[in-house]
Write a structure and sequence with these properties.
Two copies of one chain form a homodimer. By secondary structure, chain A is of the alpha/beta class. Chain A has three domains: 52 residues, Single alpha-helices involved in coiled-coils or other helix-helix interfaces (Up-down Bundle), CATH 1.20.5.170; 212 residues, P-loop containing nucleotide triphosphate hydrolases (Rossmann fold); 51 residues, no CATH class. In chain A, 53% of the residues lie in helices and 11% in strands. Chain A contains 14 helices and seven strands. Chain A has a seven-stranded parallel beta sheet, sandwiched between helices. In chain A, helix 5 links the parallel strand 2 and strand 3. Chain A is globular and about 65 Å long.
């Protein structure tokens, strides 16, 4: 397939706002691009789309590999669309080594969901420090909102840093767990459990119904040890089966209760304001480092200086200052 | 007490190299200073001291508040000096609200240790993001080495980020634990347990001897779940009593074995090389941000722009770029 001519700014904006899926996908690819020319266009597109964002419920879903995230999203997503929502899923595809993604892989894992016309699934690569969450996953979710999707799921693997990033993008954070609480708690970072607004023990079917209930009890006990959240919604522990659908409706009702609480109390809007400032600051730091490390004098001098630092010939502080002065001179 | 005239570069260097405790303390204060004039002098002093650093064993000690870190260091430090070492302790003093520190408080907590002429204790404030570990705690430890101390202890509270920072400063990381393993494991971040080279269950005396042994068994089991470390020294779990001294000699022997292994295998030297590069990069990032946020145009424009970001009027990406351009223009 030959590479199409790049659309102009208006084509991106109008395409996304019209809900055109091809333009939606291309706009997300644009904000993920690291090319300088793409970056500037991406910023203009994002500025134009901003007024059309915000009208969705943003849900982060995490859990260790093997917990059944994709199958869960496949089943839960059916519930979401059955309630009249348009659903966008920004999902990690572990089968994909590059950002091109294996859409077929995701389609299989999520069952019929990806084929539903009310659903848009965007797989991402799992490479990189953030376990599939790229720096611009948040921009991707905003573009989906501008395209008319009013329920956004951002899926992440339970590895730590990516959960912190996703927590700053979403209104609610759902932690998916396996039956068998003892081992589980050790495999999870405590910080991730603390970040969750709702815990769901998955695979509560067949012989696992009883272990799932045990896990539910153990986690419910553990949750009492944490201080209450700012939104005052107690962190509930539910069970569900992505196979039989048991517990999915209950989960939907809980999320609806949560949503109404945080929306009415103004918590959600205030949280979103803080999140925007958080991301601006993060992106400022990213920008500065990008400019610094791309600077010709830095590129030339830094490896030499770091070699001296490595061998202990130069103190780290003076090496840092020398590079800073080089950067500011030019 | 009136503030003394600031010594010149040579006075700092000669004083530290001569092991003069007053100049040692003032040199550490100098590298902790945020004043521009002090920063440059600090860098020159560090450059001159670098060739005299490195001849020590650097031990990080962490544990949750209440685990008895200071009492442990008081007892363990006695063992260190009894083996002929000169010991410097860079310790957190929770009783100190400012960087001036409450030396009396530390002296009490560490018993006779701080009064020993072979020991230098430097308390730090607990304020700030890194729980008492300042950006320049590492420089402080290097200055102690240049002053002839060949065993460095860096104490930190078990809160997360500071442990990661200290892990990058030391040759070995010791995690102090309380008897009563179950509750303990939940209170600790898994990442901290993973970083430890040796675990010590403290307070193994009186009625706690048996719970301490239980905790030892539980942790030993848990340790088997972690992959082996690069240095191939198995993460042992010991017990000790800072009160009776039981287990202190055993700990000393384990640390000596560890030290010989990492020294002979070349692991330690390679690790220290990586650590130097790590700190140079960290300080470069700190420097860039410092310059950026201190820039007059940024100071003026950033609050206005962040307000627009907060209200969703400007996309985060274009706000970040606008600020970057402002910074580079001037």
């Amino acid at each position: 397939m030959s590479r199409k001519k790049r659309p102009d700014k208006e084509a991106y904006i109008e395409g996304v706002l019209a809900g055109d899926r091809v333009m939606l996908s291309r706009a997300i690819t644009l904000v993920e691009s690291k090319l300088q020319a793409d970056r500037e266009l991406a910023e203009e597109v994002m500025d134009a789309l901003m007024p059309h964002t915000g009208k969705s419920f943003r849900l982060g879903i995490t859990g260790v590999p093997g917990v059944g995230k994709s199958t869960f999203i496949g089943r839960f997503g059916k519930e979401v669309v059955s309630k009249g929502h348009k659903l966008a899923v920004l999902a990690i595809d572990p089968s994909s080594p590059s950002s091109r993604g294996s859409i077929l892989g995701d389609k299989t894992r999520m069952g019929a969901l990806a084929a539903d016309p009310r659903v848009y699934v965007r797989p991402s690569a799992t490479g990189g420090a953030l376990g599939g969450i790229s720096a611009n996953t948040r921009e991707g979710s905003l573009i989906c909102e501008a395209a008319g999707f009013d329920f956004i799921i951002i899926e992440t693997v339970g590895v730590g840093q990516s959960e912190v990033a996703v927590r700053h993008m979403v209104d609610a954070f759902l932690l998916l767990l396996l039956p068998g609480a003892g081992d589980e708690l050790q495999g999870l970072k405590k910080g991730i459990v603390e970040m969750a607004d709702i815990l769901v023990v998955n695979k509560a079917d067949g012989q696992s119904v009883s272990p799932a209930r045990e896990a539910q009890r153990a986690y419910s006990q553990a949750m009492k040890l944490f201080p209450p959240k700012l939104h005052n919604f107690p962190t509930k522990v539910l069970t569900c089966s992505s196979l039989t659908g048991d517990g999915i409706e209950r989960l939907w009702n809980e999320l609806t209760d949560y949503w109404q609480l945080v929306y009415k109390s103004g918590y959600m809007e205030e949280e979103r304001r803080s999140q925007r400032v958080h991301w601006a600051k993060t992106q400022i730091t990213d920008f500065i480092e990008l400019y610094f490390y791309a600077h010709p004098s830095i590129k030339e001098e830094m490896p030499k200086l770091l070699q001296k630092v490595r061998e202990g010939e130069v103190a780290t502080l003076s090496a840092a200052r020398k590079l800073m002065e080089l950067f500011l001179q030019n």
